[in-house]
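Reviewers of the previous submission asked for a worked example of the structure-prediction workflow described in the proposal, so we include one complete record here. The input consisted solely of the amino acid sequence. No template or homolog information was supplied to the procedure at any stage.
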Amino acid sequence: MSIRRTYLSLSIALLVLTMVVMVFGAYVRLTDAGLGCPDWPGCYGKLLVPAEKNLSADDQWLAQRPLEVGKAWREMIHRYLASALGFGILCLAGIAFYRRHTIGVNPAVAYCLVPLVMFQGALGMWTVTLLLKPLIVTAHLLGGLITLSLLFWNTLQIKYLDVSVKIPNKLKMFVWIGLVTVFCQIFLGGWTSTNYAALACTELPTCGGKWFPSEQLGEAFTLWRGLGIDYEYGVLDTPARMSIHMVHRIGAVVTTIVLLILIWRSMTLGDSRIKKLAWVLLCVLTCQILLGLINIVGGLPISVAVAHNGVGATLFLVLVTMLFFTRTSD
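From that input alone, the workflow returned the following structure tokens.
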């Protein structure tokens, strides 16, 4: 196997692993297992989740938080997967550096992944040590999304090394607008989840009989509240959570409109490849909207909520693909 093929295979494997880490991380968060292990990087001072009988009654971590084995294992499995991803990215960057002339692609993307995954590790630690602070947890989600996107871009540039396209600058602008809009909407989704606001509104289209409960809008989007606060299960009052939820809904409407315009422009300005991607984008967008609606009317089923996270990431990757194929313009 050639080194370029090895590099491509490793990039694809890490891409899949990143998606697994993100989706499993959503599962950990949605099952309230983010503090399943109150310490970091171990779990009650161990590299493996200990049995309760092996912990002494005066253990400092046990005194801080009772051991729930299921939650602890979910948290530790997520850490193991993230550690494997970090090691794989180091290997990818090493290959990109030592064989950059043989591979024939720009190694900058692989290099950027190294500090990014290190920062992701720090965010993972702060998630625990700062007791699920919403800003940190949401930043961790966005960092994972950026990692996923860079790995995807790296895979595309290897696979389509010799492909060049000429697309009007107008379409490229629409793709960028779509990317920024979806990124902001994913931030709102993360903020909704980390503030336990997903179930604040269980009716459609209003919330608590109002079109937009804004009594505590400023409180809802206070990003930093100091240290030493335990954010597990949230600290906001119901009106603030309702505001967060409704802003996320409004963001979904705006995102849908922006992406529908992008799909329309792609159909009129794009080549055959871009048109196919536009159809894929429409399908993924439809799926994401349906999952969001089911979350509201169905009371946030875990499987649907986890799928909502995964499909949101997929939606972003479709836009990254469109950007890749519109990067060379007239």
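The mean pLDDT is 92. We consider this example representative of the routine output the project will generate in years two and three.
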